[in-house]
Amino acid sequence: MTNLGLYLAKKSINKAEVARRTGLSKSRLSQLSSNETTKLRVDELYLIALAIDVDPSELLNEVCKGLHLPE
């Protein structure tokens, strides 16, 4: 499961409702939630944040946790 999928599950977010509100397909949202190799576009992240009523920067921090600059 991806960080986005974990975040949505932790918040008990209905993915079908998010898909409806954002205009993303249910299959695309499912890919973004479960497939680590699927790339999340910034416009998708922004729409998802609006649909679940969180600050986009909060969602970005959750999705990108674990990323670091090389030393």
Automatic annotation (TrEMBL):
Domain of life: Bacteria
PROSITE patterns with a match to the protein in the record: HTH_CROC1
Coiled-coil ranges per UniProt: none
InterPro entries, A to Z: Cro/C1-type_HTH (IPR001387), Lambda_DNA-bd_dom_sf (IPR010982)
CDD domains: HTH_XRE (cd00093)
A GO molecular-function descriptor: DNA binding
Limits of the HTH cro/C1-type domain: 10-59
Protein's recorded name: Putative transcriptional regulator
Protein source organism: Arenibacter troitsensis
